């Protein structure tokens, strides 16, 4: 039975009109049908969002993660996912076998679940399933979960598990929003993604075009640091995080010119978390900072980032971990990249809603830019990566990607690869 006939039947029941008052009842039924039809349409609008709705980032989060901020009240559901295929060259740059096997991976399937209690109190969260199955090496994780108290445009409060506001990709990591099948190496090993931690902080826009985020969180854990991946393994990810040492992190961005973003971010705090080395408490202070810029204009998309970090007491961290020689944790690490892309389809089809963007990215990074006295740096950790490829978007929320990566290092053991990816967000 169609919706209109169901409404008509309900209207007749509500009217309760006798057969002797047919004309009056008919007018009353029609009036009530109109009211009910309007209410049903309102419900449809609330439950099913328009297909052409443009997702926009809010308060430092990605477009899909920001869905809850745009609804009137109640539950918000959004998400993203990505499938990747990596094909590795059979030999390293020095001609020896690479030993790498090609793989296809449903890398991530993510649900954003939010609830808008009121215009001022909002809960938002990201639930991530990695590698398709927890039974075959995958895992399920909470990537962020926090309450936002929207007090004033210039100053708002955030409490819970927050994303560390550094770089481009850590906060806005939905794969449709960046070029390349894989995240940039600089934003995996110098600024580790996805980096989240339990904490509290403030955010806002004190002046038009100027926004900030500042948090106090549990610090990193030095026992997880490594030569090849820097501080990445020290992320506690909100899972019974040791909080003997806290950290301070923040970000400031200027967006006053359309299409332009200029900003900087930092992280600072001890990472010993109560561990003892030689009978004394390990402090291992960590500082990380970055400068970033982006310009988007008429299909042009340019992005740049420079990041640097230091690990104090790196020699004592090595003693804690029991590593020697080239396995030393870097006392200094650094990296940068430049990326350019251009949507070429409007040159051939000016009114197209599709996008086809060739892009190129060049990266340099070294997780052992300096090591403590008595240790040696592994030249394999002094890396360069050229990534060249295409991003095709049939609609703004879906991307198909292809790229080739020329991976080099000072040891001559780089392994080149090409990648294919599919990603979506809603």
Topology:
Elements: H1 3-15, H2 22-47, E1 74-88, E2 103-116, E3 121-130, E4 139-152, E5 155-163, H3 186-190, E6 196-207, E7 210-218, E8 246-254, E9 260-270, E10 276-277, E11 280-281, E12 285-297, E13 300-311, H4 314-321, E14 332-342, H5 345-348, E15 355-370, E16 382-395, E17 398-409, E18 417-425
Antiparallel strand pairs: 1-2, 1-18, 2-3, 3-4, 4-5, 5-6, 6-7, 7-8, 8-9, 9-12, 10-11, 12-13, 13-14, 14-15, 15-16, 16-17, 17-18
Question: Please, could you describe this protein's structure?
Answer:
This protein has 426 residues and is mainly β. It is built from 5 helices and 18 strands. The protein has a 16-stranded antiparallel beta barrel with strand order 1-2-3-4-5-6-7-8-9-12-13-14-15-16-17-18. A two-stranded antiparallel sheet has the order 10-11. Strand 12 (285-297) and strand 13 (300-311) form a beta hairpin. Helix 1 (3-15) crosses helix 2 (22-47). It is globular, with a radius of gyration of 26 Å.
């Amino acid at each position: 039975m169609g919706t209109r006939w169901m409404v008509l039947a309900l209207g007749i029941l509500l009217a309760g009109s006798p057969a002797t008052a047919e004309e009056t009842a008919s007018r009353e039924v029609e009036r009530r049908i109109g009211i009910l039809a309007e209410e049903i349409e309102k419900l449809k609008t609330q439950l099913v969002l328009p297909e052409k709705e443009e997702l926009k980032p809010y308060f430092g989060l990605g477009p899909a993660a920001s869905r809850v901020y745009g609804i009137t009240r109640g539950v918000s559901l959004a998400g993203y996912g990505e499938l990747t295929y990596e094909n590795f060259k059979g030999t390293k740059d020095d001609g020896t076998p690479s030993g790498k096997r090609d793989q296809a991976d449903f890398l991530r399937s993510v649900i954003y679940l939010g609830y808008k209690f009121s215009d001022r109190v909002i809960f938002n969260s990201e639930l991530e399933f990695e590698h398709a199955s927890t039974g075959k090496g995958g895992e399920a994780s909470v990537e962020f979960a926090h309450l936002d108290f929207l007090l004033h445009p210039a100053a708002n409060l955030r409490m819970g598990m927050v994303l560390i506001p550094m770089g481009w990709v850590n906060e806005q990591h939905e794969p449709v929003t960046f070029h390349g099948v894989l995240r940039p190496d600089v934003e995996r090993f110098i600024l580790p993604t996805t980096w989240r931690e339990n904490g509290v902080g403030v955010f806002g826009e004190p002046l038009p075009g100027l926004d900030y985020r500042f948090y106090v969180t549990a610090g990193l854990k030095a026992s997880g640091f490594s030569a090849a991946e820097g501080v990445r393994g020290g992320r506690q990810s909100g899972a019974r995080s040791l909080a003997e040492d806290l950290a301070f992190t923040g970000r400031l961005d200027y967006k006053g010119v359309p299409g332009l973003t200029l900003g900087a971010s930092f992280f600072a705090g001890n990472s010993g978390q109560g561990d003892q080395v030689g009978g004394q408490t390990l402090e291992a202070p960590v500082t990380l900072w970055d400068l970033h810029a982006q310009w988007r204009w008429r299909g042009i998309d340019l992005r740049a980032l420079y990041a640097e970090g230091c690990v104090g007491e790196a020699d004592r961290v090595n003693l804690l971990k029991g590593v020697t020689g080239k396995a030393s944790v870097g006392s200094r690490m650094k990296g940068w990249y430049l990326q350019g892309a251009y949507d070429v389809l409007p040159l051939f089809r000016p009114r197209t809603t599709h996008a086809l963007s060739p892009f190129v990215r060049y990266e340099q990074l070294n997780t052992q830019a300096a090591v403590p006295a008595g240790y040696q740096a592994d030249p394999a950790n002094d890396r360069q990566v050229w990534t060249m490829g295409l991003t095709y978007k049939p609609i703004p929320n879906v991307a198909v990607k292809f790229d080739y990566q020329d991976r080099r290092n000072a040891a001559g053991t780089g392994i080149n690869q090409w990648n294919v990816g599919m990603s979506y967000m809603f």
